[in-house]
Amino acid sequence: MELKVLFKYTDDPDQYKMDTYISHGGYKAWEKVLKEIKPDEVIEIVKQSGVRGRGGAGFPAGVKWGFVPKDSPKPKYLVCNGDESEPGTCKDRVLMENDPHRVVEGMAISSYAIGAHHAFIYIRGEFVFPAERMRGAIEEAYEKGFLGKDILGTGYDLEMTVHTGGGAYICGEETALLNSLEGKPGMSRIRPPFPAIEGLYASPTVVNNVETLANVPEIINRGADWYAGMGTEKSKGTRIFCLSGHVKKPGNYELELGTPLRHLIYDLGGGILDDKELKAVIPGGSSTPVLTPDQIDVPMDFESVAEIGSMLGSCGVIVMHEDTCMVWAATRLAYFYMHESCGKCTPCRMGTQWMYQILSRIESGEGRPEDMDHLLSACDNIEGQTLCPLGDAAAMPVRSFAKTFREEFEYHIEHKKCMVQNSFPSFGQ
Amino acid sequence: MILNDETVKKIKATVPIYPQRRSCILPALTLAYWQEGHLNDDIYREISDILDLKTVDVASAASFYTMFPKAPVGKYYIQVCHNISCALLGADSLIDYLAQKLGVKLGETTEDGLFTVVTVECLGSCTTAPVMQINNDYYENLTREKVDQILEDLRKQG
After folding, report:
1. What does the buried/exposed string (b/e) look like for A61-73 if buried means 16 or more CB atoms within 10 Å of the residue's CB?
2. Do A166 and A37 touch, CB atoms closer than 8 A?
3. Which residue of B has its CA nearest to A179?
4. Residue A395 confidence (pLDDT) above 50
5. Cα separation of A272 and A276, whole Å?
């Protein structure tokens, strides 16, 4: 069953406008926070709600906010991460396009909570339309007095700025994003210091995903207990699952955390395209280890997916049917990570190239018997050896495909051809 | 000057927004790309003059971001996603179809200067695959008929 908290009004074509958003209860939470709740109390409410980061890592949002030092003489910044670039993920776009004021309101409340007077939303450069919608919403919020100087007569000031990127996956990683926002190449930074201590312009900064912040207004309106009543013991609330690939009804579905993957694929997604057999599912964006059909009764929450060796990640669920060559799929993903490695750390820069070279060799029928060992050794030498998670993100899917479908890789090496010939819905038919 | 008055004005308007000037680089590059359709060294020099920054800082940022072509492309810059979700729904045949229909290889521009076709990584529209972006617009759930119509409409616009 879908449970629409964030998607409650996204089907309303006018929801992006201020008047419609207000008629649906918009900006009540912002007003309440400004007039009645102290910043520390806001942080406490968000901690109590249990909402965790929706970008992929799942870190508790309120705890992250609590890391910002109160006594720092430097300005503080809130940065909303709308880079949305993990393949298989396309949820933040819907929120920015169809309910941008919810994002603005969430950003405003969290800025207030951490004591920031300037908030940025970093949106991937390709998202021209979502960025336009966000700019429009911010402009309307200034006109209504919800942003700017002395907001609603409370003395609190907040500026809000849309910043667009230039087409780099790595900028979804928070320290690369901050470098990009500073006008530099989007390369990751060494941590510590963490952004909460030294982030944007070397000042305390909180970086939160769009979906995370979009939850905040309703948490304020309806209380932490209401939010914590949804989901599982450790994975609270709902998540937007992006269902793509070989399913009959692909789409974004907002579900309570803990909903079985099977329900998403077969009931909401209508099952496998052309009624073929399911072969593999990537559960949380392209970097997460692949699952097999016997694992799809897993409840989709952080802990349950981790227990079976994968990750809930960004909730980008990519479905592959029986006519998909797993060597091909792994090669496609390896190419992506090679393309997107920023080049700062040698294991990632060189390792992603090696992985792609080996995989494309196997894929094109020139694989060597020792290639599987080389491939897994490359994974060993990337994982945990890089400054940011891109290295892990590149190695995890390759390792999982190679281990889970090892016989298919070995067949490819031995017979110089696919065990399963790709047979996809040809475009246009 | 390559950048026109309007673009220069918009670039200058970004200056008061940011606490540090260098943050204006990406917005400036984006505005220049929207005007010219690509970026080059002369544009980096102009941007660095407008923002009073070092040209090398502008160029180093530009060279990192793959969204901006660094040489002239067709009036309509067709970027086809070939990542996993789109590929599972026929992106490769879409790319072949476009190349064949326009009579170009990937990266090439049609003789009339209208179209360039390239592949790109995930556009963040996986649930409506296959997807392509032409200039600033997304085209989703593509079928052969849709692509024919899109190209015909763009040709009419010239």
Report:
1. bbebbbebeeeee
2. no
3. B23
4. yes
5. 6
Question: Do A57 and A187 reside in the same domain of the chain?
Answer: yes
Are A278 and A265 in contact by the 8 Å Cβ rule? The answer is yes
CB A331 within 8 A of CB A364: no
Shortest CB distance from A428 goes to which of B20, B138, B144? B144
pTM listed for this prediction: 0.97
Domain boundary among A321, A356, A390: A321
Pair (A60, A196) in one structural domain: yes
Which pLDDT value is given to residue A421? Answer: 84
ipTM of this complex: 0.97
Residues of B in contact with A180 (CB under 8 A): 26
Is A8 part of a structural domain of the chain?
no
Evaluate whether residue A373 is within a structural domain. Answer: yes
- What is the model's pLDDT at position A429? 46
Tens-place pLDDT, residues B20-29: 999 999 999 9
A185 part of a folded domain: yes
Count up the domains in chain A and report the number.
Answer: 3
Q: Are residues A276 and A298 in the same domain?
A: yes
The reply to whether B14 touches chain A by the CB within 8 Å rule is no
Residue A426 confidence (pLDDT) above 80: no
Q: What number of other Cβ atoms are within 10 A of residue A41's Cβ?
A: 12
d(CA B22, CA A423): 49
- Any idea what the CATH number is for the domain that residue A28 is in? 3.40.50.11540
Is residue A396 over pLDDT 70?
A: yes
pLDDT at position B9, please?
98
Residue A267 shares a structural domain with residue A306: yes
Other beta carbons within 10 angstroms of residue A109's beta carbon come to: 25
Out of B17, B84, B93, whose CB is closest to A333?
A: B84
A362 and A384 share a domain? yes
Name residues 191-210 of chain A within 8 A of B (Cβ).
201
Interchain contact, A161 vs B138, CB within 8 Å? no
Q: Residue A281 is part of which domain span?
A: 238-321
A165 and B65: CB-CB below 8 Å? yes
Selected for mutation to probe chain A from B26, B30, B44 (highest A CB count within 10 Å) is B26
Q: For A115-144, what is the mean pLDDT?
A: 98
pLDDT above 50: residue A310: yes
Query: For residue A135, what are the CA distances in angstroms to A206, A266, B16?
Result: 21, 38, 17
Mean pLDDT in residue range A7-30: 98
Q: Which tens digits make up the pLDDT trace of B54-108?
A: 999 999 999 999 999 999 999 999 999 999 999 999 999 999 999 999 999 999 9
Residue A161 lies in a domain: yes
Q: Which of A276, A294, A321 delimits the end of a domain? A: A321
For the domain covering B76-157, report its CATH number: 3.40.30.10
